[in-house]
Each structure stands twice: as structure tokens, then as C-alpha cells.
Amino acid sequence: MTAKFSAGRCGPLLALGVLLVSAHAAGQTAQAPVPANPPPTAPLRITLDQAIDLAVQHNHSLDAARTTILQNEAEEITANLRPNPTLSGDAQFLPFFQPSQFSGTYLDNSAQFDVGISYLFERGKKRQNRLQAAKDQTAVTVAQVSDNERTLTFNVASQFIAALQAQSDLDFAQQDLASFQNTVDISQAQFQAGSISGGDLLKIKLQLLQFQMDVSAARVAQVQALATLRQLLGYESVPEDYQVVGELEHKPVSVSLDDLRALALRQRPDLRAAQLNVNASQSQYQLAKAVGKQDVTGALNYSHVGGTNSLSVFGNIPLPVFNRNQGEIARSQYAITQSQDLLSEQNSLVLTDVQNSYEGLKTNDEVVQLYESGYLKQAEDSRDISQYAFQHGGASLLDFLDAQRSYRAVELAYRNSLAAYMTSLEQLRQAVGTRSLP
Fold first, then answer.
1. Do the beta carbons of residue 183 and residue 263 sit within 8 Å?
2. Helix H or strand E segment including 428
């Protein structure tokens, strides 16, 4: 059997069914649960290398310094420009006060017209010397900007280490507070059992204030360290709630002082800038000598006088009787001597920086090794023993609190020594001019 449907009868039923299905789907869509509070996103976490990259890309002071390179390159364009030709013209003996004589015949026979063009021919290769002097100055600026980047890298690394230390101090203060809070709770139970006096309990509770103040001070130090680091990175490059990733750690460095000195003499951008400045001074001297050469001005002039056309050629040159640029030539010679002396001074400064940084790293390394050789463990054991003895009536409250203070002081001093060691390592990298030590 074949089923047949009439379009005229089924049309309204189909439309009603479509409307019901659409309403049901819309109701389901409207009833879909919408989270009131979306899950918070995790804060941005950056490492030391990422912090340095962000600073190099986004630090505003460094960006401003980089524009000086572009300015010098624009000055190279100016230095390489040739003089513009000069177009001149005149019309003489025109009958402005006798208009009746103004006619083509008068203009052709009695008036004079001149049109000329002149050009300054530079002698002594002035343009080539100007261009070379500008290029040498650009090279000096590039090296100086690289030195700014070296300084910024050290500042970022030092502040990053300060942020790590602040985070470490905060973690330690919170752990110490939690541990001492446990001691307070035990002491409260001992007081209720009659094992300690009320005076000892009050002293312990008052000591808890010091741990709470340590946590507050560490939290403020962390916020300030991150804010200062954010300024170096470029304020807009990281969000306000960013975090640093890393640990205070002791990584011994084994490298000879001679290797560091040789590397610094090759890598330091400020020393390279001093070397390039000698070349720039010599270029200025050559330019001063070129300026002492007198330029020739040539002119070609067309004249129409008395119905006659003529073409004239002119040339003139100043006579170097008095001004031969003697003063600037002498000054630029002294500038060469000055730049050579500054290069020698900068060379000595580089070697001194390397030696001082190397000795500072060795000293901080020895301090860290002293703590790691046993003092940390001894301070912790002394605190644990005093705490156990006090809780079991074998030690006085004074001995326990003194051991607690000693342990906290040793731990904080150890963290300070780790931060000082890592900072001295960054200072050595800055002194050498590269983060890749041999």
C-alpha cells in the first residue's frame, strides 16, 4: 500500500511541530548552567632568562637609547648629501617709470636679462670624510647601546635574585611561624596540665609576635622586589600578579682569572666603544683637514643685452690667507690623544672589574660553603634539641628561645649568603661582558 499525504492538510501540523521543537530547544539552551565565577587564571611565572629577554625587548630606557642609533644613521644620510645648485636670474633696465616705452622692441634692445646656475665643488673629499666620520660615530653609539643592555641585564638579574630571596624569606617565615604556633599550642596544653608556669606561657606567646612580624616584613619585601623588577622589565610587559620562578642555589664556578680577563677584553662593549671612539676621533681629524681645503664655486650665466645673447662662465675660490681651519685641526689632534688615553683607562678599568668581581665571587663562595659544611645542620639540631628538652622539662624557656633565635638568624644569613653569591656571579658576568662564562 502506498501512503499519500495532502500538502494542504499537513502543512499546518508540520509548522506547529517545528515551533514546538524550536521552543523546546530554546528552553534547553536557556536552562544551560552558566558559571557565576569563571575559574581564575594562573599568574604568569617567569624565569631569569625570560625576565632578561622581556627587559631587552620592553625596557623603555633601553628603547630610548636605541633611538640614538637611528638618529646617527639619519645623520649619515645628511653627511652624504651633496650641495644644492643655485639658480639665479635678473631683469634690468625695465621702464617701470616710463610705461609708454614698454614694448617688445625696448625689451629686446634696451633691457637686460640674466639667468645663471652655480654649483659649489667641494675639494679635499669633504663629503666622503663627513660620511666616514658619521659612520664611525654610529659604530660608537651601537657599542654604547650594547653597554646599556649589559648594564640592564645585570640590574634585572640582581633584582630577580632579590625577588627570589624575598620569596625564600617569606616561605621560611611562614614555615617558622607555623612551627612556633605548634609550640605555642603544646605550651598551652602544658600550662593547662600544670607542667609550665603562666609566666613562661606568656613569654612564648609574646615571642609569637616576632614570627608574625617576620611574615609581614617578608611579604612587603616580596611585593616591593617584584614591583621594582617589573619596572625594569617594562611595566606593561607583565601583569601585576606575576611571579618569579627559581631558587636560591649554590653553583660553584671553576674558571681561571686569566681566561676571564682575555674574554672581557674581547667582549666588553664599553671597551669596544672606547676603541671605536679612537677611530671616530681620527675620522674627525681627517674631516677637519678636508674642511681646510677651499671649495670652488662654478657658475654658468646666460645674458640677453642689446639684442645680443651671450653665455658666461665664472669661477671663484677663497684665498686661504687667514682661515685654513687651523684651530679645528689642532683640536681634533688633541681629541685623538684624549680618546687613546681614555681607551687605556677603560682597558685598566675592565681588568680591575674582572679581578674585583672574581675575588668577590670566591669570597661569597667560601661563605656559602661554611654554612653548608655543617653550621646549618648544627643550628637546626640545636633548635630541635632545645625544643624537645623544653617540652619535656629538661631545658629552660630561655635556652629554648635562644636556640630558636639562633636557628632563625643562621637560616636568614644563609639565604643572604646565597643571594650574595648569585649576585656576585651576575656581577662577574657583567664584568666579563657575557653571560656565557668559559
1. no
2. helix 397-432
What distance in Å separates the CA atoms of residue 92 and residue 241, rounded to the nearest whole number? 80
The answer, yes or no, to whether residue 230 has pLDDT greater than 60, is yes
Do 288 and 325 meet the contact criterion of CB atoms below 8 Å apart? Answer: yes
Grid coordinates representing 338 are 684624549
Q: Which residue has the cell 683640536?
A: 331
Listed residue (233, 228, 223, 172) closest to 47, CA to CA: 233
**Domains in the chain: how many in total?**
1
Percent helix, strand and coil across the chain, each rounded to 5?
70, 10, 20
Q: Is the pLDDT of residue 13 over 70?
A: no
Tell me which amino acid residue 371 is.
Answer: Y
Mean pLDDT is highest, among 190-204, 208-222, 345-359, for 345-359
Judged against a pLDDT cut of 50, whether residue 9 lies above it is answered with no
- The DSSP bridge pattern shows strands 296-305 and 86-92 to be unpaired
> For residue 13, is it within any domain?
no
β-sheet with 308-316: strand ranges across:
86-92, 112-121, 296-305, 308-316
How many Å apart are CA 53 and CA 59, to the nearest integer? 10
Cα–Cα dist 408/212, whole Å: 13
Structural contact between residues 68 and 141, judged by C-beta atoms closer than 8 angstroms: yes
- Residue 437 located in a structural domain: no
Q: Where are the alpha helices (DSSP H) in 194-291?
A: 198-233, 257-267, 269-291
The CATH number that applies at residue 249 is 1.20.1600.10
DSSP state of 395: S
Kindly tell me if the per-residue pLDDT of 132 is higher than 90.
Answer: yes
H-helix or E-strand containing 314?
strand 308-316
Residue type, 52: I
pTM above 0.90, yes or no: no
